[in-house]
Specification:
CATH topology: TIM Barrel
Family: Belongs to the glycosyl hydrolase 1 family.
Protein name: Glycoside hydrolase family 1 protein
Largest sheet: 8 strands, parallel, barrel
InterPro entries: GH, GH_1_N_CS, Glyco_hydro_1, Glyco_hydro_1_AS
GO molecular function, one term: beta-glucosidase activity
Helix content: 25-40%
Keywords: Glycosidase, Hydrolase
CATH class: Alpha Beta
Distance between the termini: 12 Å
Number of strands: 21
Strand content: 15-25%
Length: 486
Amino acid sequence: MNKDFLWGGATAANQYEGGYNKGGRGPNTFDCMGSGSFKNIRRISCKVDNKIVWIPRNSSLPNGAKGCIADGAYYPSHQATDFYNHYKEDIALFAELGFKCYRMSISWTRIFPKGDEEKPNEEGLLFYKNVFKELLKYNIEPIVTLNHFDMPLYLANSIEGWKSRKTIEYFEKYCKTVIKKYASYVKYWITFNEINFMFSWHTLGISSMDEQTRYQALHHVFIASARVVQWCHANYPQKKIGMMFSMPISYPEDCNPKNVLKTYQEMNNEFFFSDVQCRGYYPKYKLNEFIRKGIVINKENTDDTDLKKGVVDFISISYYHSGVVTIRENAETTGGNLIQLVKNPYLDASEWGWQIDPLGLRIALNQIYDRYQKPIFIVENGLGAVDEVVDIDGVKTVEDDYRIYYFKEHLKSLMDAIEYDGIDVIGYTAWGCIDIVSGGTGEMKKRYGFIHVDMDDHGAGSLKRTKKKSFDWYKAVIASNGECIR
C-alpha cells in the first residue's frame, strides 16, 4: 500500500451529530424522519395551502396548517449519538485508532438555518471550525461531504426543494461559504452523498416522486454540483472535489443472454449518475430512455456547458453488498442499501439481509476504474450487526469477531485491486466508525462502529463510549498500513 494511503472512518451529520436545535441550527428534512424503515416513515405532516409540508416534532406550526397528524414518534436524528457535545472525546478516540482521515458531513441548516439567508450562522461556522482544528491537532485530514441526504426544511416547504432552480443558487452560496471559510483546513470535498439514492422527499424536498419531477430535480442537483466544482477549481485549484455514489454490484443469475443484458442495464441505472459527473454529459442510453418515457428535462442555455466544465476530480463510493439480476418473476429477494436484490446462493448475509461479498469490492473497483480512469475513494464500507456488551475481567467491550472478519476480507480485496489490478485508490473510511443511528431504519441496534455508544432504539442511555474488540484490530491494520492482514 502507498505510504500516503488515507485510512480512516466515516459518519454523517444527520446520523451522528445531534444538537438539531442547538447553536442556531435550523430544521432539515431528516429531522422529520421517525424511527422505522423508509417504507413506513413516521412523521408529523401538515397540509398548508394545499401543499404537503413536513414539520419537525415540537416545532410550531405555520399559519394555515390544517389536518396535522402528530404521531408521537421518536426522532432519532435529533440527538443521534451526540457528536455535537462529544466531538473532542470522539476525535481523541479516532486519533488513538490512528486515523489518517475522517469523512464527515456538514449540516446545511447549521450554516444557513432556512437555506435562503443573506448571511450564514456564525455559531454554526464556529462549530465546524472547532471540529476541523481538533482533527488537525491529531493530523487527521477532514474529508467533507457538503450534502448527505438532508436539506433545509424551509426550502422543501416553500419551493419544493430541488424541484426549483432557486435551490441551485442557495446550495452554491452554502458551498462557497464553507469551502472559503475552511480553505486552510479541508483539501477533499464531496458534493452529494450517494447521489444515485436521492429518490425520496427528505433528499430532494419534493412532494411528488413521479419520474418527470424526480429527474428534473436531479438535473438541478447535477447543475448545482457542477457549478460548485467549477468554482472550487477556479478559486482553490489545490483542492480536490469529487462525487459519490453507492455501488451495489450486480451479477446475472446465469448465462442466459437476457439476464446478462438486464444486468448490464441495471448497472447503467447506477452508472448514469457517475457518467454525468465524471464525463460531463447525459449518456445516450439515458436520453433514449427519456424519449421512450416522455420525460423532458428543462434546461437553461448554460446547463450543458456547466456539466462539461464541472467534471469531478475523483469518485467516492459506498460498497456494502452485491446482488443478482434475473428476468424471472417472483424471485426471492434480499435486503440491501435502500434497494432489494435477488438472493445469491453463494453468499452469506448480514442480520439485515445484506449479502456479504468481499470479492465484489474488487470487481466494483475494476468496473469503475475501467470506465473513468479517475482516482477512487472508498468512503463507506461496513457491517451492520447487533452487538452485545460483555464484561471481561471488569472491562466492558464487544466481542465483534464477525465485524473483524467482514473488514479483513474486504480489505484483502481492496489491497488486491490496488496491487494486482493497478486501481488508483486514495483511501478507505470504514462506515459508522463509531455507533450511529441507522440511516435506513432509524435503529441503534444496527451497529457499525469500532466504538460502542450506550444508547438504545428509543434514545435512552448514557452515551458512554466503549471500545470494541474491532477497535484494536483496526488500529493494528492502520499502523501496519494493511500488512497485518496478509
